[in-house]
Amino acid sequence: MSATPVDSVPTGVVSTDAVAVQGAHRPPGAARDPAGAPPGTPVVARATSESDQGPAGPARTGVWFVGARGSVATTAVAGCAATVAGLHPPTGMVTETAPFTEAGLPPLSSLVFGGHDTASCPLPKRAEELEAGGVLPHGLAAAVRSELAAAEAALLPGGPLPGETRTQDELIDSFAADLTDFRVRHGLARVVVVNVSSTEPAPSGDSLAPSSLYAAAAVRAGCPYVNFTPSTGLHAPALAAELAAGGLPYAGRDGKTGQTLLRAVLAPMFVQRALPVRAWSGTNLLGGGDGAALADPAAAAAKNTGKARVLADTLGGLPQGEVHIDEVPALGDWKTAWDHIAFEGFLGTRMTLQTTWQGCDSALAAPLVLDLARLLARAHERGLSGPLPALAFYFKDPDGAGSASLADQYADLCAFAATLGGDAR
């Protein structure tokens, strides 16, 4: 089995408050509860019950990153601390806007961060590097150093590591035990696992990809799961039975942050204005961990699957043209994406639209990751299970067959938020 990608896996723990809470989520496999739920059904704590209220406020929620020392996770941890401290507004966090006020989401101040990573750069140092690259604002690494240091002090190695001797099942059990220990030690109501590790090639043969080992561990530990990458994760056929029995909510895959986000806006425009698209080509230039990972043609192919889906689903098929991904190490965590769209107008007049997207993926992704962790935590509290197609707004290749239009997806997301409000069942 290949080693885990650079950006994936160790456990850093950082809490944005100091509130201790009572009550814990029962892991799958526990005995039937008094209400008659079958084994493996998540235990749901009511928002107003003692199990979800600590002595000084709401229960804390764990956010466990696979890829805890990567750019996205580091930005999310630093950004959450900065937002809670009032140093910066929650820009880019959809869950901090008006439609989500009554959704009952866990407060940012209640989030406790952990995770796995095989990388060795300490979180405070990684934040300094991101600050030097313009990803984090000047002075932020120092301002939240204590939170980053607290996370670094609790980091655990992941795997599989070079020379790994543990079997796949032993690795899954080990990761699941880490999750359970994290939840119990910190008195967490629940833990949401979020995969933000580097993109891996699609697996071949019967072996589970590293992302699927972590996904299986999440299911065994009774944790909701988010796959923010194009990697296989829970989509491995070997996990289907265990996933169905787990009774957990999950969402994915591949976060929609830049080029595909724009495609989800533009493609419906052409359909709605009856303008046939003849060709749609794209190029991505990027550095950093993503650039290095996507230099592998197999990993790039996995990434492009999601990029193509929004066009195929919206236009009724793929037009001519391809997407190319080129690594440019000098760009660091920044990327440039170009699209060239050839379309037909009235009387066959041929026209083009060209777009340029320049941005920092970590800064675009981090608020979405925090959104998803909060939404999955609340869905779990409400007793929801299975894929959550209403979260397609966040993904290139979402579960389900709904609309690929960003406007439609946003409407679905807001409607979902309305259903999350009120007491849990």
From TrEMBL:
<dbReference type="Pfam" id="PF07994">
    <property type="entry name" value="NAD_binding_5"/>
</dbReference>
<feature type="region of interest" description="Disordered">
    <location>
        <begin position="20"/>
        <end position="58"/>
    </location>
</feature>
<dbReference type="GO" id="GO:0006021">
    <property type="term" value="P:inositol biosynthetic process"/>
</dbReference>
<dbReference type="GO" id="GO:0004512">
    <property type="term" value="F:inositol-3-phosphate synthase activity"/>
</dbReference>
<dbReference type="GO" id="GO:0008654">
    <property type="term" value="P:phospholipid biosynthetic process"/>
</dbReference>
<protein>
    <submittedName>
        <fullName>Myo-inositol-1-phosphate synthase</fullName>
        <ecNumber>5.5.1.4</ecNumber>
    </submittedName>
</protein>
<dbReference type="InterPro" id="IPR002587">
    <property type="entry name" value="Myo-inos-1-P_Synthase"/>
</dbReference>
<feature type="compositionally biased region" description="Low complexity">
    <location>
        <begin position="23"/>
        <end position="35"/>
    </location>
</feature>
<feature type="domain" description="Myo-inositol-1-phosphate synthase GAPDH-like">
    <location>
        <begin position="258"/>
        <end position="362"/>
    </location>
</feature>
<dbReference type="InterPro" id="IPR013021">
    <property type="entry name" value="Myo-inos-1-P_Synthase_GAPDH"/>
</dbReference>
<comment type="similarity">
    <text>Belongs to the myo-inositol 1-phosphate synthase family.</text>
</comment>
<dbReference type="InterPro" id="IPR036291">
    <property type="entry name" value="NAD(P)-bd_dom_sf"/>
</dbReference>
<keyword id="KW-0413">Isomerase</keyword>
<dbReference type="Pfam" id="PF01658">
    <property type="entry name" value="Inos-1-P_synth"/>
</dbReference>
